[in-house]
Predict the 3D structure of the following.
Amino acid sequence: MDGIEVRWLREEPGTAEVLIEGLPGIGHVGKLVAEHLIEELHAEKIAEIYSLYFPPQVIIGADGVARLARNEIFLHGGNQGIAFLVGDYQSASAEGHYLLADAYLDIAARLGVRRIYTLGGYGVGHLVTEPRVLSAVNREELRPAVEAAGGGFNRDEPPGGIIGASGLLLGLSLRRGMEAVCLMGETSGYLVDPRAASGVLNVLSALTGITVDRSQLETRAAEMESIIAKLTESERAGDEDALRYIG
Amino acid sequence: MDGIEVRWLREEPGTAEVLIEGLPGIGHVGKLVAEHLIEELHAEKIAEIYSLYFPPQVIIGADGVARLARNEIFLHGGNQGIAFLVGDYQSASAEGHYLLADAYLDIAARLGVRRIYTLGGYGVGHLVTEPRVLSAVNREELRPAVEAAGGGFNRDEPPGGIIGASGLLLGLSLRRGMEAVCLMGETSGYLVDPRAASGVLNVLSALTGITVDRSQLETRAAEMESIIAKLTESERAGDEDALRYIG
Amino acid sequence: MDGIEVRWLREEPGTAEVLIEGLPGIGHVGKLVAEHLIEELHAEKIAEIYSLYFPPQVIIGADGVARLARNEIFLHGGNQGIAFLVGDYQSASAEGHYLLADAYLDIAARLGVRRIYTLGGYGVGHLVTEPRVLSAVNREELRPAVEAAGGGFNRDEPPGGIIGASGLLLGLSLRRGMEAVCLMGETSGYLVDPRAASGVLNVLSALTGITVDRSQLETRAAEMESIIAKLTESERAGDEDALRYIG
Amino acid sequence: MDGIEVRWLREEPGTAEVLIEGLPGIGHVGKLVAEHLIEELHAEKIAEIYSLYFPPQVIIGADGVARLARNEIFLHGGNQGIAFLVGDYQSASAEGHYLLADAYLDIAARLGVRRIYTLGGYGVGHLVTEPRVLSAVNREELRPAVEAAGGGFNRDEPPGGIIGASGLLLGLSLRRGMEAVCLMGETSGYLVDPRAASGVLNVLSALTGITVDRSQLETRAAEMESIIAKLTESERAGDEDALRYIG
């Protein structure tokens, strides 16, 4: 296995003007929005990404079939195609984050992407009744349109910058001539947060013109939360031992 | 020393239809089953694996002779040969897990292996009176046979997927055209668990036709537990200092 | 993205006899002094350094524009040019520290640097009323001049040596024939410390002849402290989750 | 800077039948014995080892001059030369331990070394009134001589094997045809332990015929302890902040 493997699932991958990233992160806000869009738009999977920078494990499907941890590219081919980057993990190492982000941008370049939206959560550590959507851009001229769509810009928020793919895709895409916007839904960070996701979806819809039914958003959040709750419980029970013996 | 070194102990390594992996893991269930089978079947060691992805240490034998940490391949040459992968450690780094799993599959390919069984424990954090055997496969068509042999498939168990060699061998063998089944004996995770091992052995015997005497299984578990207990005590006493000075 | 990328911002980078390093560190003493000098001397940025050894994140400017974490080289072209090395981070890995320090010295060599000053803090864990400036050199013959300028040498202080760029630039520059002096302002380590910075500035001015207005020093320290305080608060609130989901 | 750099300090490095390793470790037993021998035998430094696998820092000498962390080879040229491996650190990463141990063996091979003694401590976590010397060998035929010299072999001690250079040099030298013996002085692990060192020295003298005055052994232990105590205090005060800002 190479450091990073991209498996294209069809010969002609197609084209997309826009790439929407929703990898796992704070409150799983980005993941929830991106997976909801993929479902509602019936986007088609066109590529899988495998890497030794992902955690060394397999995921077991509902059918009992194990598969390697992976990220995926979906494509919705409308007037202007829209690609999605979703999946299981970000990176297990700091250097892997950079190398994977570059690989995602190679894929974006091949699809002809000109603008990237990275979606995430902004964890504030307490419950939020009216979640804001905080934003960042990789070129100042993108800011008015984001503000008009409802994305806020608050000095020093988030103060530590943006960690992981949602951040690096902004920084690294600039040198490839791509525009990039990061939308972060304010969230406690404790649960998969459909309200934060709904806020991000509002801004994203205004910016891209994508509109989808939202009746399944809460259901999807609840399902995702249920999986994560089991994961957390399992980690408490067995993982310390697991790491000890394996390490 | 290269990243991973495979030392073949005889010129013609032989052939095996099946590879059974039992590296250290939760409750040492897989290790106990695989080492028990090796002993009872008088399997012969045919290869040693050394790697700088293992922890940087030597193991001291009962005779006072130190040897590098290593994993080993044993072969039992019956009608269809059966190979075993056992040893001291998995990997000290996330990337090493992937690289080592690929090296194990290179060995499997050289032996002509067509099916892999990976054996492990499923830690639940409390004592279990009737331990189940949870299963995963790398192709859905393997599932009926595993169920008929007593292997269970429960949605969301284990919820975090399968970490380490037992998982990666399922995921990475698929692309080499090998079938793979993971059998996990339910265990508290606190002690080397002969009951979980016995359950795994039941399912494995039904699937492979291998039958062995089990009178030594409890004795072997007790010996393994005794070694681990001393290790744990020693880690409490000295290792924090060791790591500090060495680091 | 390569391991380390240096982007020169003009064709002829210019020349400098002296390089002053002030990367983030204990009490941000070095960072405060170097950034103060850059502002007061109106030094010009001549290069940016990007690296996958930096933490995988982007920094968001006051205008909402995200940029990759980076370090920077500034140049003040007086009689003898003075270069400055400042920026966002040191390294996320031990090996990266060495590789980045070598890259900084490649830049220094290209500018013709003959002497390096590395600036930092010496954390003592309690408030200090009259902060000393502790020193280290990479050649013994540099010591009298440093002492005459007010830099102290106390056996076994700091007892653990000097960690990171401020240390490695001393050790690694020797083999390139460059002289190097480290000045460490005694500080509690708890806050961005303008008094420690002022002490370092005294010694540095006496050694280099650089004199600048200091009326903004306290203001800059307060601004820097405010940013760091927000960062710390944010880390408490959300980062554990962030790391968990991302990892 | 390459991964590992060996700087020979004279053109003809000389020859040695024996290499004695005493890098930092539990109770600094090995370091104390090896440095004591170097002093008493007036051994000469013949090589320095630099590596990006060492912690990224410089050590400050009593004269205020900083130097890169490094390990060193000394040579005492008697009837049969004796080489010593001592220094500042082992490795900052698991893989570095393997790579450095191989580099030490390249040096040993160049000097013509046929037998290696690695010296260390065996931390038991409580004060020991009559410290034993535990032993390990890399060939069983070495054991009688070690036992005759007072080195003990106790099954399952140390139960976790031997971590770091003292262990890897045993394991990795075997494949180069070198004999190797590890001598571990039983120690609480809390302080630099001259009694454990004295015990190791007894066994080593009986095995090698080297006899040295021991009147300075306690003094050297006290000096080493004083440096380490300052280091520990300093780490408590400042290092958490240091790592945080630098990381």
User: Anything to note?
Assistant: The radius of gyration of chain B is 18 Å.
